[in-house]
Design brief:
Layout lengths: L1 H5 L3 E2 L10 H9 L11 H13 L4 E5 L2 H12 L5 E5 L3 H4 L4 H4 L4 E5 L8 H4 L13 E7 L12 H13 L4 E4 L3 H8 L3 H5 L4 E5 L10 E5 L1 H13 L8 H13 L4 H16 L4 E2 L9 E6 L10 H10 L2 E2 L1 E4 L2 E5 L6 H16 L2 H5 L1
Parallel strand pairs: 1-11, 3-4, 3-5, 5-6, 6-7
Antiparallel strand pairs: 2-8, 7-8, 9-10, 10-13, 12-13
Bound molecules: ligand TLP.
The site of ligand TLP has 15 residues, from helix 4.
């Protein structure tokens, strides 16, 4: 009992929960810093140069969060009263506080897509004709990997096609690539290769890459200079934040090569879950580090609620999150090894043998 109490929980709520590695902490302690609002933080400048280089772009900009980097891109590409096309479960639409409307003044124009993967046939009907009294389409946004569809990955031919056709009608395309290194790992391709046609790309250092803080926006020099102004407007001008960027540099250089382990662990978890009565998911669809499963009725008993299963798992030191009344998300990352995944599976199997009412009593 005591050892169970002392054991750190198996935290599958998100890959945002990772703590900095010893190498990151050393780099943070030793970081050379300056005032980044004056462009004088050598560590931030180095991180921005490396991000631009890795993505084959002219420039990059460091942000405190992915949400601020997405909003900055949206606000830089659009003006109030214009529309942003995105997928109906997109992070910018569901989980960024409606900032695209509240702050950028844009109207989201959403469409659901199978597995969250848009294509031109879905997007084209949403593009507004050039009539002066219609809100104009100012931006298309894609999400790769797609979080709320369980870490699904865009086939590069599909995202390339969307970008080319959008450019042909004069609309820029922004990528929410919070987990683009996971997508690249799953595809066995480089991030520059799979994102080259986007006008701007946001990626997070603080998710699968494991840094404690930070996201990047990459694009042309002109776009990044305009984004720097928008970032300051949003209150995102930081000072000696090289102490944070130092961990980001370690994450950028060292972590992408180990992401396949998180993907293997997610698939292993998915295969185990699919064998448990009352759980529905297709393990073959789990190709990165996120999985979302459904709770289903078993032998005439109603489906368990996600809130009930999440609470029962928490009592067993397994943390995860509900994404709907009967759906749960789990995310693998470098703080959760294969043993922890097996322990989590044992706990889930135990919880799922309880009758629905037992947990609610
Ligand atoms: N996602 C978080 C939650 O907000 C859901 C998570 O735990 O997955 N784009 C995508 C696709 C994201 O998944 C997230 C964070 C963001 C943007 C925002 O990044 P932050 O949290 O740094 O603002």
């Amino acid at each position: 009992m005591i050892s169970a109490m002392l054991r750190a929980p198996i935290d599958l709520r998100s890959d945002t929960v990772t703590r900095p590695t010893p190498a990151m902490r050393r780099a943070m302690a030793e970081a050379v810093v300056g005032d980044d609002v004056y462009g004088e933080d050598p560590t931030i400048n180095r991180l921005q140069e490396r991000a631009a280089e890795i993505f084959g772009r002219e420039a990059a900009l460091y942000f405190p969060s992915g949400s601020m980097a997405n909003l900055t891109a949206i606000k830089t590409w659009t003006r109030p009263g214009t529309e942003v096309i995105c997928e109906a479960q997109g992070h910018i639409y569901l989980y960024e506080m409606g900032a695209l409307s509240a702050i950028a003044g844009c109207v989201p124009n959403t469409v659901p897509a199978p597995d969250g993967i848009l294509n031109w046939d879905l997007i084209e009907p949403l593009i507004r004709p050039h009539v002066y009294y219609r809100a104009q389409t100012a931006l298309i946004e894609l999400e790769n990997t797609h979080n709320m569809h369980g870490g699904t990955v865009y086939p590069p031919s599909v995202s390339d096609d969307i970008c080319e056709r959008a450019h042909a009608v004069g609309v820029p395309v922004h990528l929410d690539g919070a987990r683009i290194f996971n997508a690249a790992t799953a595809l066995g391709r480089g991030v520059a290769d799979i994102t080259g046609k986007f006008d701007s790309v946001m990626f997070c250092l603080s998710k699968g890459l494991g840094a404690p803080v930070g996201s990047m926006l990459v694009g042309s020099r002109d776009f990044i200079e305009r984004a720097r102004v928008t970032r300051k407007l949003l209150g995102g001008g930081m000072r000696q934040a090289g102490v944070l960027a130092a961990a980001g540099l370690v994450a950028l250089e060292q972590t992408p090569k180990r992401l396949h382990i998180d993907h293997e662990n997610a698939r292993h978890l998915a295969e185990g879950l699919a064998r448990i009565d009352g759980i529905g998911l297709d393990p073959k669809k789990v190709v990165t580090n996120i999985l979302i499963f459904e709770l289903r009725p078993v032998n005439g008993s109603p489906a368990r609620t996600a809130a009930d299963v999440v609470a029962e798992l928490a009592k067993r030191d397994v943390l995860c999150g509900a994404t709907g009344k009967h759906s749960i998300r789990m995310v693998t990352h470098f703080d959760v090894g294969r043993d922890a995944i097996d322990q989590a599976l044992a706990a889930i199997a135990e919880v799922m043998t309880q009758p629905a009412h037992a947990a609610q009593a």
